[in-house]
Amino acid sequence: MNLEKVIFAFFSILALTLNYGFFIGELDDPTHHNVYELFAALIVSLIATIMKFGDRAHIGALLLATSLVADLQLIAAALVWGYVVYVAESPLEPSVMSSIVSLSGGALLANLTSVILLVVETVTFRR
Amino acid sequence: MHTVISLLLRRMRLPLIVLITTYAVSVLGLTLIPGVDDQGNPWRMDFFHATYFVSFLGSTIGFGEIPYPFTGAQRMWTTFTIYAAVVSWLYAIGTILTVIQDQGFRRVLAFSSFTRKVRRMQEPFYIVCGYGDASRLLVRELSERCIHCVVIEKDGEKILDLAVEDLPDYVPGLSEDATNSDTLIAAGLKRPNCRGVIALTGDDHSNLTIAITSKLLAPDIQVICQSDSKDSAANMASFGTDHIIDPFEIFASRFAMMFHSPSMHLVYEWMTAVYGAPLSDFKRPPTGSWVLCGFGRFGKAVREYIAIEGVKTRLIEAEPEATGAPLDTVEGRGTEANTLLDAGIQDAVGVIAGTDNDANNLSILITARYLNPGLFTVVRQNQQKKAPIFKAADIGLIMQPGTLVAQNILGLILSPLLGDFFRLTRDQNEEWANVLVSRIAGVVAEVTPETWELEISVLQAPAVYNRQRRGHKVQLKDICSNPKDRSKLLPCVPLLIKRDSMDMLLPDMEEHLQNGDRILFCGRQDASSRLRYIINDHQALDYIQTGIDHPRGTVWRWIRSA
């Protein structure tokens, strides 16, 4: 057992599950989407990205790319949320909430790809 | 570059994770701890404000407690946050600094920046392996002539020398082992604009490895190697090394040439001299008995060559058995008067100080001269930096291996025809050389002549090509005339015309030029640029052939003709 691989897989999958937890629910209902969950998803996703730094294998580069996409989507979602509430100072309209959640949906897809790649790598790993 | 970034990122993994975790915990804590707003109502900080607060706190800017004054619990959490953020920042910055100062990282950085510089080179260049005396001189001469090169040297100190050397052209250097094929590839071995590899590492085996690697990876490029022994020279030649330079062999053959044809020796000397060197004098060493100190590679080569000229040598050698010296060899270093006397210095006509130690060589010279003031002296100078001392010693002939190697390689690079020229001169006699020497001395003033090559082709000589196409004949003297005054010739001597398989040594000035001719010239440097001007400029060639300076523009031509 390789401890590095365990930690790596842990963060990748945790990023996916947290993301899913935030995403699930009625698309435009703010009560279904907790801000803490988005925060946790973003932080874990960032840590997962850093874990993938410096891997020069081809699959490592792919993992890094998907992870960066997830980060970008989640940061965009957080920025939209912050902008609407604190800069535009308007309440969370269903239209705003749906765009935040759909952004996180994109991140979910990226995280899913990341985990699929991880599984592929593990399956093809022979020693 | 990829290696550098990935190396940096890999080392930054943990510090970055620590940083993100610290920030995340701090932000989360602030959003969870209950506070009160300005009206005293319970209030909780939102993510936006918490992130804002931790960001300025972490960078120790500190704008104060916003948006409302903090409660005791919030202040306690903030205190923790301050220390945690400062420590994690110190850790991250410390790691970056450690990585940057790391020897391995610096090496990777130097390697990748060298690779990038080589990749950016668009013009033809040479790879010089090793940066000793010979390479230093060669690199300087090449860069003065705007020929690019890159240097690989194992010793990092020497690469620093290259960096501080004030060269007219930028020469990238890398401190790596040139026998490693990766290093050679990084230096541009496989690039289409790489012209050649020059192996001057000072070690025959390394040179051999470089030659093999180069010939295998890039069969079409020129490989020039220094070799100090016949064995490795034969080995290098066996797989197609283009040129093998043995400084001792070259010196010995030139020195032997001085005995029977000093003028021919002068021709050789001048043709391969460094840029702007003073014109050397005519010297003829006396035939008689010579004393040779040191029977190493140098001594063996000299003895062998001058024996052909009928010159007898008495040897002095410190280790006669180890070097395989003949039986009548005097054992000793030659620095003491008694060994020199034993070898018969008082009846000798000349002394050759050929050990591999410069101090000993000078000592031999001074002692020998003291015992017999009329001696012709030949001294081997091993290190270039001792040149001022050797110059001051007023020596008949100094042998500098580095200079010899650099000059010969330079000749091969600048004018490949020079090799053909030297091959043809071997069949000529001393009188022929005498005439040539006086002709060359007539055109160059005080410094040694430059040699250069021209090709009569559409691209290199459009003016000549154009006139020939219109049915005019162009003679050699036409392109050698002064474009300002056609009655005068330029200060140059055409040495050789190579036409198909025919070689014309010292061609006649009336010779008609043909397309595809390659011509070797020697002369003053300004003649070279004038010559290039003539073969490129229709007007200039027109004037030289007809004596009429035709107007250039259409309007003037029309006015003149009207």
Summary of the model, kept short:
The complex is a heterodimer of chains A (127) and B (562). Chain A is mainly α.
SSE blueprint and pairings:
The complex is a heterodimer of chains A (127) and B (562).
Chain A: H1 3-23, H2 35-51, H3 58-87, H4 94-124
Helix pairs in contact in A: 1-2, 1-4, 2-3, 3-4
Chain B: H1 2-32, E1 34-36, E2 42-44, H2 47-58, H3 72-101, H4 103-120, E3 125-129, H5 133-144, E4 148-152, H6 156-164, E5 173-174, H7 181-186, E6 194-199, H8 204-217, E7 222-226, H9 230-238, E8 243-245, H10 247-260, H11 262-271, E9 289-293, H12 297-308, E10 312-317, H13 320-323, E11 330-331, H14 337-342, E12 350-353, H15 358-371, E13 376-380, H16 387-392, E14 397-399, H17 401-414, H18 417-425, H19 430-443, E15 450-455, H20 462-469, H21 476-479, E16 492-499, E17 502-505, E18 518-523, H22 525-536, H23 538-546, H24 554-561
Parallel strand pairs in B: 3-4, 3-6, 4-5, 6-7, 7-8, 9-10, 9-12, 10-11, 12-13, 13-14
Antiparallel strand pairs in B: 1-2, 15-18, 16-17, 16-18
Quickly list its features.
heterodimer, A: 127 residues, mainly alpha, 0% strand, B: 562 residues, alpha/beta, Helix Hairpins, Rossmann fold, 4 domains, six-stranded parallel beta sheet, 24 helices, flat
